[in-house]
Amino acid sequence: MTGMADKLGVNPLAAVNTGRLDQADLDAMIRRCRSCVKGDDCILWMVDHEKADEAPGYCLNSEKLHALRDK
């Protein structure tokens, strides 16, 4: 999850520290990422993208990550 966040220019730990994200939401994001069945696709996507404006469509955290980036 942190790898995808980095590609999108989001720092989830900083968001927790500044109150933009609470720890329970961060924990839920990590659980969603761990439960994803597209892990191999995700790794390949991250290898191919140094930085990105959008997460891949299958990313279970894309909505939350985009919201954090846009705040």
Structure description:
The chain is 62% helix and 0% strand. It is built from five helices and no strands. The protein starts with a helix and ends with a helix. The model has no long low-confidence stretch (mean pLDDT 96).
Looking at this protein, list some descriptive labels.
single chain; 71 residues; mainly alpha
pLDDT averaged residue by residue:
96
Taking all Cα atoms into account, the compactness measure Rg is 11 Å
Helix and strand succession? HHHHH
Helix content: 55-70%
Task: List the total number of helices.
Answer: 5
**Stretches where pLDDT falls below 50 for ≥5 residues?**
none
What percentage of amino acids are in beta strands? under 5%
Distance between the termini: 19 Å
Strand element count: 0
What about the largest sheet? Answer: none
The structural class is mainly alpha
Given the C-alpha coordinates, what overall shape results? globular
Summarize this, please?
The chain is an all-alpha fold.
Topology:
Elements: H1 2-7, H2 12-17, H3 23-35, H4 39-48, H5 62-70
